[in-house]
Amino acid sequence: MVRPFVPQLVYFEPKAMEYPLGQQLRDKFENMGLEIRETTSHNQVRNLPGDNDFQKYRNAKSTLVVGLRKTLKFDTSKPSAEYAIPFATGCMGHCHYCYLQTTMGSKPYIRTYVNTDEIFDAAEKYMEERSPDITRFEASCTSDIVGVDHLTHTLKQAIEFFGKSDRGLLRFVTKFAHVDHLLDADHRGKTRFRFSINDDYVIKYFEPGTSRLDERIEAAVKVAEAGYPLGFIIAPIYLHEGWQEGYGEMLEKLEAALPAFAKKDLTFEMIQHRFTKPAKRVIQKNYPMTKLELDESKRKAKWGRYGILKYVYQDQEQEEMKDHIGGLVHKLFPKAELEYFT
Q1: CA end-to-end span of the chain, whole Å?
Q2: Is this prediction's pTM over 0.70?
Q3: Fewer CB within a 10 Å sphere, N or C end of the chain?
Q4: Number of structural domains found in the chain
């Protein structure tokens, strides 16, 4: 079982101490006996321990920077929500395929933001602009927020903030089972708690440092029993030998474990594996022994959102995924909504 994340090293930006949460986290980490350093800005976090890039990358992944979210302009987050709401950046998991590999660049450390009231104020303005329409906010675009929230509780704050909102809904997704502190949050049904799930082959070979499938399903049952609307992202769908059986077993396990009431308001999202050339370079540098198939000649090239070519599966393979996995979702969870395949 993967233990809850505890950083080896914590940096504090000076202004973080001007916020109550900054003070609380400082006290907490001092009491935990963690090594604490000061930094003028997260950009100045350099010289992390390690004799080579491989070691430095792993040490960065166990480093936490406590600071402020300076940019309060939210990115869009289609197709899952209207906007991404930022509470953290970076992830402690080691998923080989992760797009954060390239977006985080040379700074794979985890950042958490203490100016949560300013982030909520910005969210209010976005809701006002779209009123009377409901605005959905995605809290896990740049991090696995659940993986760090047992330390910070900013996600719990956000769940209760949106619980009181008439015009906003919150959603996030996680590969971690450390959900107990969120079960008593006053969510009022306004937060959809989603788990990223995959078959045993993908989790074993490409998702080190995350909770196993059985642990995620067990956590999902707890979340359902706490009254949260529930969802699952099947991602990345990866074609390996025996994938039909692997994804079938995954969905059958899920169907057997979930209580009947939880199956009435379920969402599924399906995302195929894709990569870019910059991502391939970073992946092969950080995980030189990876089994991940990254052969452009086997894939279909497609222009991505930021004008970078991404490599997805061929059309026929995509149809097979949709038919097989989508068909199983409809069969096993007839009342669930399959939101999209991309």
Answers
A1: 31
A2: yes
A3: N
A4: 1
**Cα(195)–Cα(176) distance, integer angstroms:** 8
As a dihedral over the C-alpha atoms of residue 285, residue 299, residue 196, residue 264, rounded to 10 degrees, the angle is: 180
Helix H, strand E, coil C: the string for the chain is CCCCCCCCEEEECHHHHHCHHHHHHHHHHHHCCCEEEECCCHHHCCCCCCCCHHHHHHHHCCEEEEECCCCCCCCEECCCEEEECCCEEECCCCCCCCCHHHHCCCCCCEEEECCHHHHHHHHHHHHHHHCCCCEEEECCCCECCHHHHHHHCHHHHHHHHHHCCCCEEEEEEECCCCCHHHCCCCCCCCEEEEEEECCHHHHHHHCCCCCCHHHHHHHHHHHHHCCCCEEEEEEEECCCCCHHHHHHHHHHHHHHHCCHHHHHCEEEEEEECCEEHHHHHHHHHHCCCCCCCCCHHHCEEEECCCCCEEEECCHHHHHHHHHHHHHHHHHHCCCCEEEEEC
Q: What is the pLDDT of residue 57?
A: 83
Residue 304 belongs to a domain: yes
Q: Is residue 72 part of a domain?
A: yes
**pLDDT of 197-230, one tens digit each?**
999 999 999 999 999 999 999 999 999 999 999 9
- Quick: pLDDT tens for 32-52: 999 999 887 666 666 666 777
The pLDDT of residue 42 is 63
Please indicate, yes or no, if residue 2 is contained in any of the structural domains. no
Closest CA to 196 of 171, 213, 208, 178: 213
Domain limits at 78?
9-341
Give 62-112 pLDDT, tens digit per residue: 999 999 999 999 999 988 899 999 999 999 999 999 977 766 666 789 999
CATH number of the CATH domain containing 194: 3.80.30.30
Distance between CA 326 and CA 337 in Å, rounded? 11
